[in-house]
Amino acid sequence: MVIVGAGPRATGLLERIGASAPELWSGAHELRVHLVDPYPPGPGRVWRHEQSPLLRMNSMAEDVTMFTDETSTVDGPVRPGPSLAEWAAQIAAPDAPRFTPYAEPADPEVLAELRTLGPADFPTRRAQSAYLDWVFRRALADLPPSVTVEWHRTTATSVTGPPDGPQAVRLAGRSDPLRADLVILTQGHLGSTPAPAHRVHADFARRHRRFHLPPAFSADADLSGLRPGEDVVLRGFGLAFVDLMVLLTEGRGGAYRTEPDGTLTYLPSGREPVLHVGSRRGVPYHAKTGYQLQGPRPPLPRYFGPEAVDALAAGDGPLDLRRDVWPLMAKEIGFGHYHELFHAHPERTAMPWPEFLAAYDRFGWYSARLAGLVATAVPDPADRLDFEALDRPLDGLVFDTPDAFQEHLRAYARKDLARREDPEHSADLGAFLALLSIYGQLPGLVASGRLTARSLADGLDGWWHGFFSFLASGPPGFRLRELDALSRAGVVRFLGADIRVGTDEATGTFTATSPTVPGHTVHATALIEAYLPGPNLDRTEDPLLRHLHRTGALAEEVVADGTHRHRSGRITVSLADGRLIDPGLGRPHPRRIALGAPTDSRAIAAFARPRTDAPAFRQNDTVARAVLRALDADPSEPYVPGPVDCARVGG
């Protein structure tokens, strides 16, 4: 078996193979697993150790695990393991039980971090790299002797072979291909060459000797061409921007001083450029919460689970995401929010929870009756959930001067940070958990084919993905403190919402405007697209996917109806088991599987929060068990998965 990509997704699959091997692998013959990845197995590219020590995760250490637990609905054995926080605790306490195979990280900085890492701390990516390295070594140790793993530190360039015979996987720098009965693709997030719109800006930059960076992985970006004091427009205000902000400030020698009142003051090195940032919303992502639930965990899903998805899929006519699906999603998020508010902060409610829930069950999210119920039961508007206000916080706001807007946005960020650090607002965490639950249900709905093409393009891949990230995938709170300090120091300048980026041939500069500050135009000599590249099979930098796509051996997800045609750039796979849909066969390929980010399962995360019945763990388990059954019976036979609940595995 060849697994292309050796990062967290491949590691999780190996862990599940090891878990089910005692039951399903007889050991009558050897199973040779070839891992192909130029980056280290376990961490892979994104989480490799070789990146700036300034870059951090946007999850607390206690919220990161690679292991199944009592909530996992898997057919294979549940094998609990430590979260990142629990794994780090053994290093801090010399007399603590050791998680085998025990080995301390070689990097003294990482070792020092792990010795002081608390459950609520946001680890560096290097600390996560060390954890993933250990998980990989544990997964290897748990495999039976007849299952061996070999790492090929290179890139897979092509795969060929008949559906009823061995596959040949060619590697860069090697003349002889690897022969495999099965090929599994787990490459994770991939880069792509610039889109046409970005090429226009790149051409402008070349002609005028300016700096331009298309969407890229921040840790890999070459920022050396940016000069001290240079004006830079950054389009995007999410996690990629935060990484770039860090690399261009602290990464260039700047530092922060904590004042007696707890605020930060930025001490510039003089090597920083000036960062002008804007986006569609014009505000930074909401900070991650810094507390735990104060009440019992909400029993999710309630309104948007497998039964609701099945009912939507079984209906007549096309589904519009915002009209037909979002109200159920919103009600689910509201349930998580109000469940925590009523249980943890009953003094701020005016009705017993059972009475509220009985009425809440009956009313639609956008109904006047639900609005009346919430107004009666939740007296303070600050405790009510208003998605439209959350989604577009600058709508209707206009500022006369750029400086007035700077002060407004600093105040906005401070207010958001205070709320995310105060457990009195733990209802936000209840909503967050409901968001995670919803995200896991959506692949089943997509696979039903009921969503309109426009809903998939603009609704799911557009608005919903952005809204989810805005609410649930923000930075640690201390990054907003740093942003505030950088703004006061004049190193970061806020542009506003709905920014428009253009070019000025006369001055050879990029321009940026926003209706938030009418009449104000920023001229800059550098432009950075501060967001990650999206999936795109036409422009992917991955040579294996490029080869499969150009030879017609995989299918891009294309959804078309009478009004729109949407090409998502994602690989079409069987939802249940991840098998590649082969257009030449007209069905799933029996010997090729793809899991994770580049597929139309829509980037099921490779690791997860504990006790969330993670969809990726369920899918890994299903694939691992089917692979073991097929190869143990007869490795020359094609992969035939067992029956599986598609909605459950997909979400």
UniProtKB/TrEMBL annotation:
Q: Which residues form the FAD-dependent urate hydroxylase HpyO/Asp monooxygenase CreE-like FAD/NAD(P)-binding domain?
A: 2-189
Instruction: Return the InterPro entries for the record.
Output: HpyO/CreE_NAD-binding (IPR038732), L-asp_N-monooxygenase_NS-form (IPR052189)
Q: Where are the transmembrane segments?
A: none
Q: Report any Pfam family annotated for this entry.
A: NAD_binding_9
Q: Which PANTHER family match?
A: BLR0577 PROTEIN
Its recorded name reads: Adenylate cyclase
